[in-house]
Amino acid sequence: MVAECQLQIVSRCLPRGVSPMQEPVHPSALASVWSRLNNTPIVRGEGSYLFDEQGNRYLDFTCGIGVTSTGHCHPKVVSAVQEQASELLFGQMNCVLPKITQHYADMLQAHTPATIETFFFANSGAEAVEGAIKLAKVATGRTNVISFDGGFHGRTSMTMALTASKSIYRSGFQPLPSGVFVAPFPNAFRYGWETERAVKFCLKELARLLKTQTTPGETAAMIVEPVLGEGGFVPAPDAFLVGLRRICDETGILLILDEIQSGFGRTGRMWAHQRSGIVPDIMTMAKGIASGLPMSAFGASQALMSKFPPGSHGGTYGGGSAVAMAAALATLEVIEEENLVQNAARMGEHLLQGLQLRMSGYPHTVDIRHAGLMIGMEFDRDGQPDSETTRQVQAECLSRGLMLLVCGTGGNVIRWNPPLNVSFEELDDALQIFGRAIETVSGAG
Ligand SMILES: Cc1ncc(COP(=O)(O)O)c(C=O)c1O
């Protein structure tokens, strides 16, 4: 159990109704563009918890936006990093071949779908997406790309153009690179339709887009998240992914699956798309890859990857950080040794059931969506996104020591993203806090 005293410490620090989120703290040496859930300086992390200077403990179910999937400072990852740091910090990939990078690539290959054989390593998710798009263009000789409504792919120029989850990621920065076309995504709850109808509609609209705006002969790739992350934690229906694969096979368009947030066991499968039985042509990975060290990758078949003329893609740091590689290698070992993929599936079910129970008497609409330990709760009221309630629930949880993020176009989705090795006890503590938060916000507490 989260000791009540720990929770009381948190609430003692904060006057009732005031969360750290509301304090106007912007240390002047840090850019104010970083909005932040919790402004309390954090000094330590262990497992599912973060600790501030006063020793207050927070149950971190943000996982740093899905990064610390093995929990904070997993001992195996920490000791791999420490050991590697004393051997080799960096070996630039155009200059030398760090042995650990080769080793990790082989390990990763053993865990990716058969079509994903060879990898380019980079530092951030957006950088991996940029590389994947470049590969698709150079391999097909085609110029255009299709992305999907609600998708998030990053904040560099190209990835902003692909992103359609919220206008904040584009406004003020347009015009963005051309040749990007956004197709509808089957978000059944948003349409108010059955999933089947939403899938049929979206595949039909996609076929139409290929007739009206970008022909297959001009279209290098489609990029899609198997579970929308920033766009509201919405799993892509299997039939939709199967439909995309079919259209790509018929047209020679490459299918890029963006598994940056949904990969490495997060959804109770190693890769979220595996539940649909399809395979990608190119796959992007990051976040849970290295338990917190900056690292990302995109992978493809050897035949496809070899279409990059040598030197046409690269970067100073990608693949060269031996320490990040050591962290990634240890992360993969922890995922295997501790059965974290299976644990994510099991714990996801437990969390889902607990949330459904706690929301059963709630008088307004809540859609709870679930893929392993990637659970979204969308709050609506009178047919409109209820961002106010969502924000209040988030703040009430934080004031009781539970950190949760919000996502979705309307800012009305609570995003459950606990570490993959979370325990039943920790989930039950979180559910208890969440239950109290809901009672308070809905006036019953
Ligand atoms: C699915 C997906 N793709 C790409 C990105 C961009 O990653 P980064 O923020 O590391 O550039 C993110 C980040 O949230 C993401 O969730």
Descriptive overview:
There is one protein chain. By secondary structure, this protein is α/β, with parallel strands linked by helices. The protein has 2 domains: 4-73 and 340-441, Alpha-Beta Complex (Aspartate Aminotransferase, domain 1), CATH 3.90.1150.10; 75-337, 3-Layer(aba) Sandwich (Aspartate Aminotransferase, domain 2), CATH 3.40.640.10. The chain is built from 14 helices and 18 strands. The protein has helices at 4-13, 63-66, 75-87, 99-109, 125-140, 157-162, 188-191, 195-212, 238-251, 302-305, 322-337, 340-359, 387-399, 424-441; strands at 42-46, 49-52, 57-60, 118-122, 144-148, 180-183, 219-224, 227-228, 234-235, 254-258, 282-285, 296-300, 365-371, 374-381, 384-385, 402-403, 405-407, 413-416. The strands form 4 sheets. It has a 7-stranded mixed sheet with strand order 4-12-11-10-7-5-6, with helices on both faces. Strands 13, 14, 15, 17 and 18 form a 5-stranded antiparallel sheet that branches. A 4-stranded mixed sheet has the order 1-2-3-16. Strand 5 (144-148), helix 6 and strand 6 (180-183) form a beta-alpha-beta unit. The site of pyridoxal-5'-phosphate (PLP) has 15 residues, from helix 5.
